[in-house]
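Objective 1.3, modelling of assemblies. Example input:
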Amino acid sequence: VICLLAGGTGGAKLARGIADVAGAEELTVIANTGDDVEVYGVHVSPDPDLITYWLADRIDERGWGIEGDTWHVMDALEAAGRPAWFRLGDADLAMCLVRTEALRRGARLTDAHAEVVHAMGVGSRVLPMSDDPVRTRVRTPRGWSDFQEFMIVQRSEGPVEEVQFDGAAEAHPSPEVLEALAAADAIVIGPSNPIISIGPILAVPGIREALVDARAPVVAVSPFVRGEVVKGPTEAFMAGAGLPPGTPGAAAAYEGLLDGFVADERVPGLDAPLLQTDVLMDGAEPRRRVAQETLDFAAGLGR
Amino acid sequence: VICLLAGGTGGAKLARGIADVAGAEELTVIANTGDDVEVYGVHVSPDPDLITYWLADRIDERGWGIEGDTWHVMDALEAAGRPAWFRLGDADLAMCLVRTEALRRGARLTDAHAEVVHAMGVGSRVLPMSDDPVRTRVRTPRGWSDFQEFMIVQRSEGPVEEVQFDGAAEAHPSPEVLEALAAADAIVIGPSNPIISIGPILAVPGIREALVDARAPVVAVSPFVRGEVVKGPTEAFMAGAGLPPGTPGAAAAYEGLLDGFVADERVPGLDAPLLQTDVLMDGAEPRRRVAQETLDFAAGLGR
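Predicted structure (tokens):
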């Protein structure tokens, strides 16, 4: 079993590649829930959903949401004078209703999201990092903001001065997360933002220790392609965390955790073996190649 | 101020007529919430919404929901293998989200529904009978069912052996309901099902007493038109409650409460003055006529 830690787009693409080359049932994704938000009374899990839509081959080409979705509910809210700043397509909202209905009847977030995964016909597991609420907050010169507010309303405008994961200190990894990490044959940290996508996962007490204690090698894939991120405000967050820019910063973010690192450039001072390869995943074929090379690399690493 | 007790269609049509002849701001509706249901994680209030859509001139010609609504969210649920037995149009769902979001942030149902009323641009007040949950349940030879299950899944097939209003005994009328009844110039019991539409309202301890103590005359409008109900399974419920069929049964249901009764036939043994007039409201003009005649009738009654 391959265990993949993932945030949004980059991690989701690698999840898709791993499912392709290893088989859907062989993949367990541990997904960031620090971006989760309650809006319009429903529980939205942006990263777990993005990963699930990718695995279902239903991701829209805009990079989020469900392909060909419509916007009737948001339009009705706006027509009624309720600004729908957090845009959810109708089919996307339907999946949020599936999750919310399960939560209202007392289900854990893990089981509630499993209903979404099942509804989308996905054969892999997509596990929220925790059943407890963790909420990423961002401080800029304008003050503290919820993560979605920073990303959508403030258009992720930095500089980012500080990031907090509210609730993380009191959160517990789900039993499924700990079991998946302990049982994994390989643990991959996906090419997601090290601070705000992988950071919340590692901030849940017990997950970092589970990576260190795992029998499987831990390999991270850099989110930097030719020195730049493909999508999202990664650099502002790395600067805010005092990390060097680019690939060396991503490696530094995981210091002490890695048995191997996958990047498209050499990393001075890296304390683990490097697989240097093109990590751009701009299609099904490169996604499969990066996945296969990463898994082969991990298989050759000892612990 | 006119205070109208109402369930679904009949009461909603009279609400529309009263708003037309007396002015929207002069109308306060006290609405049945015994049909409320949590489905897809959202709080649906069928009767308060039906009334609100009528008052907003947005009711669909099918008799419920919002005119010209679309069904993308329900279709997405069904495509994902989640049977959407309770069909909510996209715009209808948007109004449920407005209410649910308010409830999740701790608002009372009264204030949550007021947001829907405001979002629909309605100038009248539509008050849930209580902020506490009351749920109508129906017993047939098949056993006990929730109200919506009886109406939709079982297609309201009787015989109805018993009706219960779960939670009613512990429920309180909202302060707004008690104030509206105390301040009203006329109190009208709308032409809704006496057992399952008006019954839950009167089952909330304090509301019946507030009607008795009110300074305004209380007038009921019969839901029977030429001996038959226009819509819904009223007769099965009246038989189940041991009431005579037709108009006399409706009068009997409100025994001891009425200062006047409006019906299209004479009612033997009626203990209050009768206004005999056509109560069919099959258009804007007859809705206004029934409303005006009922208000004129109430104005001439003493207490």
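Chain A touches chain B through 32 residues (CB under 8 Å).
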